[in-house]
Amino acid sequence: MRFEDLVGHQKEAASLKANIAQGRMAHAHLLVGPEGSGVLSFALAMAHELVCQNKTGAALEACWRQCVHHNHPDIHYAFPIVSGESSSKHSICDDFLPAWREFVSSQPFGNLFDWYRHLGLAQKQGNIGVHEAQEIWRKLNLKSFEGGYKIMLIWHADKLNTQAANKLLKLLEEPPAKTVFILTASDQGSLLETLRSRCQLTTLQGFSQGEMVNYLTQQGVPNSTAINLAQQSQGNMNKALDLLAQDSEEQVFGQWMVQWIRSAFKAKTQKSAVQELMMWSQEVAKVGRETQKNFLMYALSFFREAMLANYGMRELCHLSISVPGFDFEKFVPFIHENNIGSIAQSIDEAIYHIERNGNGKMILADLALQLTRLLHAKASV
Q1: 8 Å CB contact between 107 and 114
Q2: CB 241 within 8 A of CB 114
Q3: I want to staple 238 with a disulfide (CB 3.0 to 4.6 A). Which of 36, 68, 267, 370 is the partner?
Q4: Between the CA of residue 130 and those of 126, 172, 308, 377, what are the distances in Å?
Q5: pLDDT in tens, 16-27
Q6: Tens of pLDDT, residues 158-186
Q7: In the β-sheet with 200-203, what is the strand arrangement from edge to edge?
């Protein structure tokens, strides 16, 4: 991956490439961008540019070849991992490197859920622990294999647990010579302030519709299909590719959403619907925490678009939901200024508690009952 190969972000790439060429690189960088915006691809291009600079001819070709296969000896990776049946209690990222290389090569726009699913552990919630932080210390105190830069790329640095983050603070502040940290996160607010303050920030936006259409058509997607995917995905290339492969989790999310809404409406007059809501919460709680969080983010988007449609801004609505018997237009009037704030707050709180390993059944059951009350709130006259 070279800067020139990136989808979009050419202004940011040109700035960093100039800094690399002039030897004005900060020792720690934080790349922040929403899901599907190519943050990981950008981080890889940055790492590859650093280790391959000043090389020519056969040496340059050999360097790029190692980078393409993600096995350059001076580029080290840290990423969230989970403990499964085949991994030990104190697993480190090197134990997962073959799977990581496959994942990065096949899903350059993939998210955490895709990564966990690639590992076959989609019902787990991973992190970057203190044993990985110790491994980072060990690796970066070794000499560079080629005598140039050593790179530590930490994907989803927001998944560093507190112990690991604290252990890395000193290293981030005073790293060994010619060492560059590249941290990525989907939201800089989720990263400890002590880590953020030690990094130079680069913010990447979601892709434009033109960039998405151009990329998708280069992959052989018909132009009309590419335009439709870009409109639905709103800058999220990972979502567009999932929709193209008909592998989108949103198909299941749509069914869950409609089941939730229907039971919530019935609960006001039918006691049996409360039992339906409890069964719904148990069903959703069976999946992994990452999937639960993704569903709740989907729910936020669903309610947001319903409100926009209610106030005549349908051109800003791109969510597609296809569930037999459900008419989105009939649902729209129930989401308005008197309940959207409370709905969004309730969902945000549920996400917060799920991230902190709260009991999924209880969190989702409580949220389901709250929605029952909020959906029946009256709009202002």
Answers
A1: yes
A2: no
A3: 36
A4: 13, 15, 44, 47
A5: 888 888 888 889
A6: 999 889 999 999 899 888 888 999 999 98
A7: 75-78, 150-154, 179-185, 28-32, 200-203
